[in-house]
Each structure stands twice: as C-alpha cells, then as structure tokens.
Protein 1
Amino acid sequence: MKKILLVLSYPGFSGRAIDEAVRSAKKEKATLAALYLLEAGAAESVFDKFSDIGFMGDRPAEDLSKLVMKESRQRGYEALGKVQIKAMEEGVDFEPLVEEDATVEKVLSVIDKTDPSAVFVLKKKQRAFFKYFTRSLADELAERVSREVVIITEEGDQEKEDSNVKDMDRK
C-alpha cells in the first residue's frame, strides 16, 4: 500500500500543513504516516537558557532532564493526535511514528523503512542572515531524497493556524 510521510520536526506547525498531507494521502489512496521528531538535546537547551539568566546552577538535575523530555514527548503525542483526527475525518489510514533523534540520518532511515511515495516536511522561515550559515532539515531532505519532497514553509507558531503557511514547494 502507498504511504505519504509527514515529518513534524518542531511543535509549532499549522493546520494547513496537516491538511495538505491528508489531502495528498486521500487523493493517492495512501496511508498517512506522521513522524514526530523529539530533539534529544532539548533538556540541555532549556538548562542553558536557565543558567544564562542565572536561574539555575552549574549542572542540570536529572529530574529537570526527565521533565523536559516528558513535556517534549507529550507535545509530540498532541501533534500526532491532531494529524490522526484530520486523517480520520477524511477517511485516511494513519500511522503515528515518534523518533528521539531529530537528525537527517534518522529521517532518512524512517523513509527507507516506510518507503513513502512523497514526503511532506515543515520548514520554519529563517532570517535571511542565518540561511547562509545553516541548512534546515527540509533543505537536506529535498537534496538527498529521491522521491517527491513537499516543503511547507511556515513563519509563526501553531496559534495562527492557516495564516502562518508562507510557501509550499514541491521538489
């Protein structure tokens, strides 16, 4: 059976991104596999921000690391739940996937395992300055994946829903 893969690599994404992936899966009569990537370094990132402002001491407590990862995982389940609801409303089969490593290699391994006909990937809008120094997950996948890659560029966070989808590119 055909599959469409939707890669959710950060918590702030719009309803339109989900709609596009579900619409494509319905049109292709394919299963929608939604992959949520948990960032392994999230606890360190939170700790760094708290220590920079003087809120925490030298080393993060193990409880803090567990709490941050638990919150990240919960957000992932909520995101996958939104995708599942939309897929069910449209009569599309759904397969949730969660991976703890938000790297291109991990996504490529999931693509190899699931063998989707198309990959939908979200991309945050970068400030012009940063685009010269870093490459996004979406850009890397578009370059390295041999199947159709649909990049949905977003500006804002989830609160803005449909108004934050800036662009959609098919490569």
Protein 2
Amino acid sequence: MFYKFPVACALIAFILFLEGTRMFQISGIAPNLVLIFFAVFFTATAFGERAGFWVLLLLLCVFMTLYRLLFGFWIESAVILSLLALGMYAFRRKLVGTPFLDLLVFIIAGTLLFYGVRDALHAAPFLFGVVGMEMLYNVLAGVLVWLVATQLRNYYAGRS
C-alpha cells in the first residue's frame, strides 16, 4: 500500500508535464488530464477506491504544489480541480454504482462545473461549443485511460 502513494504522486507530476506541453491538443482543444486522472483514480483503481480522506488531501497537496510551481498564474484552476476531486471523493459511493457510469458522470459533471466556475470567476461567457468539444474529448480520453487502468488492475489482482 505504501508504494502506491509515490506512484500516484509521480503520475500527477507526469500528467502536469503533459498538461503543460499540450501534447494531446487537437484544434486548440486539449483534454483536462488532471480531471481524468482523479475520475479514473476513484473509479478504476483499488487504491483510489480505498484511499482515505487524508491520502486524498496529501495527493491534493502534492498536486497543488506542483501546479503552483509549473503554472503559477493559473492557481484558480488548480483550486477548482482540487474542489472537484474532493467532490468526487464525497460522491464516489453515492452515484450509479457501476464504475464505468460513475466515470462518465464524474467527467461530464466535472468538465461542466470546472468551466462554469472558472468562467464565472472571470466573468467570461460560457462557450457551449468549446466546452462540449472538450467534454467529448475528456470522455473519450477518460474511457481509454479507464480501460487501461482496469486491465492493469485485473492483471495485478490475478497475480497476487
């Protein structure tokens, strides 16, 4: 169990690196990899399903620290994503109950809430077309990551 926390921290660092390079950007739209990470973390990994509140807070501290170091001027986005992760933690056992459907709910609701709150803070218009395209991209990327994570989970569960 103790080796999983450093692995999760390293994954957050790698995801923030990918987020900064905008490697997966298509036509100006990039997936929210941090949102996808937390959605998959709570629905497809045994560590995420059993993680206690304090483990989540430590992960969020690592995330906020790295985010602040890499993207200091977008701190409100990090705060919104952290609040969304806390919301995912709070609702992880209260949704549909099927991990795949819970993933879809987390990603769709998370994308809408992220842009709704961020645009409200900046008094910017909510662009349904752009947000809809990113939501579709987030869902597709999230499903792909979820499938890989569940296959890895099943593989390693069978080996122990």
Protein 3
Amino acid sequence: MWHKHTMQMRRINEPAPRTRPSDRRAHTARLNRNRVACAVVACLLAYGVARLLVAGIAAGAGGTDRVHLGQMIALLGLPVMVVVGFGAWKRHAGLLMVGACGCLAAGLILFAA
C-alpha cells in the first residue's frame, strides 16, 4: 500500500488506514442491492429455462406424456437452477451456467422440430 502524502510503501506491521462508518454502510447497502438483483435475475432466468425445457421436450409427437415429462423435469430443475444461478462461487458464474442451460433447452426445440 502506498501512503497518500509520502508515496512510500506501507510496512506490513503498520495498521491499515481506517474507513469511515458511512463508507462501510454504503458498501454493505450496495452489496445487498447486488444480491437482491442477482436473485431476481436468477429466478427469471431459471423460469425461462424451465419454460424452454418444457417446450423442447413437448415439441415431439409423444402427446401429453411428453408434456407431463417436461413439466416434471422443469419442476425438479427450477429450484436447482435458482440455487446455482444465485449461489455460485464466482461473480455471475452461476447466471452464465443457467444461461448456457437455456441455450441447450432452446436447442432442444430446434432439433425436435
């Protein structure tokens, strides 16, 4: 770390400069807003993927049995996709994985037609 006034490196045993409480509150508020936004996007994206999955499985000539199968798979996969989309270990990695699943589900519709 560089000191502001002397432009020298800070020694390891020196305490780091303290942040103001208002900075910490603003940072915490921003993180909370980001978490809520990420959860909303994860839910919407997972719902869209589930809808594409049902449409892709039901696109064939299997009748209502395929529709029911698609609905069961989507119902089981929806909570998993929400958890993966929101709780990934890296920033936005889960949303990208759920989006990739959406692309695969859209591909089911194209190849079934």
Protein 4
Amino acid sequence: MDDFQKEIEELLDKTTKAVNESVNYVASKVNKEKNKLDIKSQIGYHERTLKKAYCRLGEAYFNSIDSGVAMENNEDLLEVIKTNKKVIRLLEEQLNNL
C-alpha cells in the first residue's frame, strides 16, 4: 500500500505543478492583453483630444479668414497638438514593445 500511496502522491504533485504552471502562463497572457488594452485606450483618448484641437484650430483659421483678422493666441492649441502627437507616438512604441 505504501508504494501505491507514494505513486499517487507523486502523480498529484506532478499534476499540481502542471496546473500551477498553466495557470501562471494564462495569467501572464491575460495581464499582457490587459496592458495592451489599457494602452490602446490611452491612445484613443489622446487621438480624440488631438482631433478636438485640430477642429478648434481649423475653426480659428476659418474665423480669421472670414473676419480678415490675423490668427492670434493659438500657441496653446499648437502645444496641445504637439504634445498629444508625441504621447500617441510614445504609447504606440510602448504597445509595439509588449
């Protein structure tokens, strides 16, 4: 009975180890996919912010042409555009490195 019990215990140990390894592998894959989704969400947010800034800049340009007055004080929009383009590029690099 001791040999049979020892074999059962060894089998259970091997099975437990295999299950734990599989669970760890799946958990790491799920975590990686979660990170990818988080980064994609951030990219989407910055892309929407960028589009809004382009729209505001385009409206300011149209208004300046329509009124004949030169565009002024749009440095903040230009900075928003530059910053968000840079953030998007960095997030895309981070996503590609996962």
